Amino acid sequence: MEIARGTYGFRFTEHEELPLCRLFAVGCDTVDRSDYDWDGLRRTDGPLLLFQYTLSGEGVYEAEGRKHRISAGQAFLAEIPGPHRYYYDSSAEAPWTFLFLLFRPDTILPYWQKYRREAGIVPRLSSDSAPVRMLRMIVTDAAAGRISDPLIASSCVYQFMTELVRAQVVNSRSRSNWPENIRHAAEFIERDYADMVSIDQLAEHVGLSKYHLIRRFSSSVGMTPGVYLARIRIEKAMELLRGTELGIENIAQRVGYSSGSYLIKTFRRMTGLTPGEFRHGSESLLYRKLFLD
């Protein structure tokens, strides 16, 4: 779908009682002239956060002492005012076409900082990734006049930033990106969760010291091997609680716990429910499954 070219600005009255995200401008533009040149220290419209994504062509972004050529599929993050510069290089072979989103940092800054810390200032994103699709939709809605009040504008900024952070989390936690020995460790836990004795056993299986296993596993998976093992055991316990009439002691044994009391303690810590409450509903909802992060 063709995106309408143009810049759309928003200056809604602030809601003092509601901490809303504040959209400043959004748009799609194509430039092929050398006067497209923004110096972050000379701008007076800040404080602002800028996310700019290249659809085609190439632009230049200078920041943190480095010069980056931002080609198709790449974005840059800029904090305004700030020590950066982005511009069109007149020696480029084609015009630079990009999407951009400008918004105030208050309320949404922690999301921005997390994404920048993990993805860097020049991240690469697929054109069909959720954040880029979201940005296209915001531009389209702006062009159609559908961003008509501060609540809609706030929702646009919040959804975009949460999609951006989520995309980075999913990418970093993707099993295909894990080192081979960490994938083997996870597979061992998923297969032999009922018979695992200790993390030392797991470390020996994948040829790492216990310290290096925990550090690398946590970095790749987002949790320690011990927490991953507990999560797998509790998920298997849920299946047995809702799919069989087995008693707590029997289920504990089947998922690798030494006693029913230990299963109850761990189950409550991870789900907020006892196994009995999960199975029968009690005064809570009757869950088929609880999803754990």
TrEMBL record:
It holds the Pfam family HTH_18. Gene3D superfamilies: Homeodomain-like, Regulatory protein AraC. InterPro entries: AraC-bd (IPR003313), AraC_XylS_family_regulators (IPR050204), Homeodomain-like_sf (IPR009057), HTH-like (IPR037923), HTH_AraC (IPR018060), HTH_AraC-typ_CS (IPR018062). Residues 183-281 form the HTH araC/xylS-type domain. The keyword Glycosyltransferase does not apply. Keywords: Activator, DNA-binding, Transcription, Transcription regulation. This is AraC family transcriptional regulator. Signal peptide: none annotated. The keyword tRNA processing does not apply. It comes from Saccharibacillus alkalitolerans. Transmembrane segments: none annotated. The lineage of its organism: Bacteria, Bacillati, Bacillota, Bacilli, Bacillales.
